[in-house]
């Protein structure tokens, strides 16, 4: 498009370049890359000639690193100078693309050009974004590149867009849009076609209900929608004017203080029309309470990109976790050659990385997503000599970022707040008996348990204590002798001294605010069921870290909600594994500026009034709510199966997670063959006994009667962050990245539960 013609860097990209794609020290192959005319997609293939090629979206790239800024490029640093090398870093869990250019000029042009395009994609407003999608579809469908589209191309396009429309209706829309009567659509005619295609009856109906002339909403009428339907209290007058200024495309309407259907639809599809309360996107919570009053986003075996037995140990895994706001990362340290400690999953085939490289990576990325304290969970299996080396690396590399003494200088009376801690990194120590590893855990509570020490369950080194901590070296079973802890390393521990958990009474009698316990998921679950109220009280004063069972060798996760329900702060998950558990984690920590700290609800910080998640109705603050969600429609849901002509049969399921009584799922029926604009108009009802702990997950699936439904997209958010009224839910992929313009349109209402439960 014309915007790119006058930028020299983008011209280089559009002309195309040949780079070496590098996967390892020995795997380096030429690949051709070029920016397509739309300025949105990068095209690449292994040879210029021949058929097969791939594309990826510029908006899928999060950042561009220049020079030897990835493990892979560092491994070939002696072969290619840094001014030829750059790394494209993708969103979500997709791996990096490491490239080597032929000249520094070409590398520079791609680095600058990509950064400009990424910046532009991030700063588009709703209207530009919409134009961009339309343009994108047009270019995809205009197969012979003559800048116009005949009816055959339009039919193909509808299939690509996940629309199964009968031919007569499609032809009718085509002729309506073909104002030049040329039997083909040019781009402006195609824009009209797209508009008719995406005409939203349910939005039009709402507009009609409030517009006196059926053409426009006056500011007063928009105000009524905001007050009555969107349940916004004060400030409706100002807000109505702001929305007109921001979303109304027609200058004429803006000057008259009114809003057209186009403007109204843009508002509903924007972040302000989203189900997620925009004020919760900012840092809105009190950050001055003791650390034990917060939930922390926490990662387990952070160094792994895949499974626990053969997976790749990687610095990239730390970068990905830290960019997602993780505030507690784990490092498994073992004695390495040349007096350099290494990080890997001990006694397994996972690859090894240097401890000092891990610390250097953490130093660079620790505070990119959050300004609040980061906890390093050092699971230490090193001898005293290499423990000293670890201490030196921590001090030298982290410098002033490392917390070396209590804040304020005296012995701590209570844990510091995230605010007081600020951008600091803390560590912690621990002896062998702190570990809870004598139990062989069965990760699935419903399956029969395995006897301790039976043949198929050898004690698993991953069950070693994993706290913000260093446990003593993992000794072979024959040497029972306790190995010494180096003074240099234990001196770096300030607030998190790991102690063995000996029961709630013992913990209370010997209370020290700077002691914490690490528990395996099964032990923590058992305590939560048997003594929930005691666990909640314990977690008001002290930190608890929970880690997955050692038998989860494929890096599967456990449901963190059960442990948040009893106030456990550090519930460590395998960040590298997508699925429900990470959706819940992302859903909880998406709020509060994504800083990785979420303040626990008031009733979980109150030592006067005990709270037990098993019996929420016995708490004096019990105030259950009715949640009613009308699922109206879906928009442009992605295809699950890329086969030509396959179109999804979508259904929506709403799941509630929280205290045991609140666990519930309800789903709509499925719609045949329509992922483009399915309409359900079905209402799902829930009773939520404890709104303060509840998370609500919206899932779209492709119905399949023969096998399991395929996942299409999801969005999870705290019950307390839901905005009532007509709202869009912007769906996320399995990896937690956005998949615009895929969305659901719903009408949400909550009310007090006056009568007893149904």
UniProtKB/TrEMBL annotation:
<feature type="domain" description="PI-PLC Y-box">
    <location>
        <begin position="489"/>
        <end position="605"/>
    </location>
</feature>
<dbReference type="Pfam" id="PF00387">
    <property type="entry name" value="PI-PLC-Y"/>
</dbReference>
<dbReference type="InterPro" id="IPR000909">
    <property type="entry name" value="PLipase_C_PInositol-sp_X_dom"/>
</dbReference>
<dbReference type="GO" id="GO:0004435">
    <property type="term" value="F:phosphatidylinositol-4,5-bisphosphate phospholipase C activity"/>
</dbReference>
<keyword id="KW-0256">Endoplasmic reticulum</keyword>
<feature type="glycosylation site" description="O-linked (GlcNAc) serine">
    <location>
        <position position="180"/>
    </location>
</feature>
<dbReference type="InterPro" id="IPR000008">
    <property type="entry name" value="C2_dom"/>
</dbReference>
<dbReference type="InterPro" id="IPR018247">
    <property type="entry name" value="EF_Hand_1_Ca_BS"/>
</dbReference>
<keyword id="KW-0472">Membrane</keyword>
<keyword id="KW-0106">Calcium</keyword>
<keyword id="KW-0325">Glycoprotein</keyword>
<feature type="binding site">
    <location>
        <position position="702"/>
    </location>
    <ligand>
        <name>Ca(2+) 5</name>
    </ligand>
</feature>
<keyword id="KW-0807">Transducer</keyword>
<keyword id="KW-0378">Hydrolase</keyword>
<dbReference type="InterPro" id="IPR011993">
    <property type="entry name" value="PH-like_dom_sf"/>
</dbReference>
<dbReference type="GO" id="GO:0005634">
    <property type="term" value="C:nucleus"/>
</dbReference>
<feature type="binding site">
    <location>
        <position position="649"/>
    </location>
    <ligand>
        <name>Ca(2+) 4</name>
    </ligand>
</feature>
<keyword id="KW-0677">Repeat</keyword>
<feature type="region of interest" description="Disordered">
    <location>
        <begin position="433"/>
        <end position="479"/>
    </location>
</feature>
<feature type="active site">
    <location>
        <position position="300"/>
    </location>
</feature>
<dbReference type="InterPro" id="IPR001849">
    <property type="entry name" value="PH_domain"/>
</dbReference>
<dbReference type="GO" id="GO:0005783">
    <property type="term" value="C:endoplasmic reticulum"/>
</dbReference>
<feature type="region of interest" description="Disordered">
    <location>
        <begin position="409"/>
        <end position="428"/>
    </location>
</feature>
<feature type="binding site">
    <location>
        <position position="332"/>
    </location>
    <ligand>
        <name>Ca(2+) 3</name>
    </ligand>
</feature>
<feature type="domain" description="EF-hand">
    <location>
        <begin position="129"/>
        <end position="164"/>
    </location>
</feature>
<dbReference type="Pfam" id="PF09279">
    <property type="entry name" value="EF-hand_like"/>
</dbReference>
<feature type="active site">
    <location>
        <position position="345"/>
    </location>
</feature>
<dbReference type="InterPro" id="IPR015359">
    <property type="entry name" value="PLC_EF-hand-like"/>
</dbReference>
<feature type="binding site">
    <location>
        <position position="704"/>
    </location>
    <ligand>
        <name>Ca(2+) 5</name>
    </ligand>
</feature>
<dbReference type="InterPro" id="IPR001192">
    <property type="entry name" value="PI-PLC_fam"/>
</dbReference>
<dbReference type="GO" id="GO:0005886">
    <property type="term" value="C:plasma membrane"/>
</dbReference>
<keyword id="KW-0539">Nucleus</keyword>
<dbReference type="GO" id="GO:0016042">
    <property type="term" value="P:lipid catabolic process"/>
</dbReference>
<feature type="binding site">
    <location>
        <position position="545"/>
    </location>
    <ligand>
        <name>substrate</name>
    </ligand>
</feature>
<feature type="binding site">
    <location>
        <position position="518"/>
    </location>
    <ligand>
        <name>substrate</name>
    </ligand>
</feature>
<feature type="compositionally biased region" description="Polar residues">
    <location>
        <begin position="467"/>
        <end position="479"/>
    </location>
</feature>
<protein>
    <recommendedName>
        <fullName>Phosphoinositide phospholipase C</fullName>
        <ecNumber>3.1.4.11</ecNumber>
    </recommendedName>
</protein>
<keyword id="KW-0443">Lipid metabolism</keyword>
<dbReference type="InterPro" id="IPR017946">
    <property type="entry name" value="PLC-like_Pdiesterase_TIM-brl"/>
</dbReference>
<dbReference type="GO" id="GO:0035556">
    <property type="term" value="P:intracellular signal transduction"/>
</dbReference>
<feature type="binding site">
    <location>
        <position position="330"/>
    </location>
    <ligand>
        <name>Ca(2+) 3</name>
    </ligand>
</feature>
<keyword id="KW-0963">Cytoplasm</keyword>
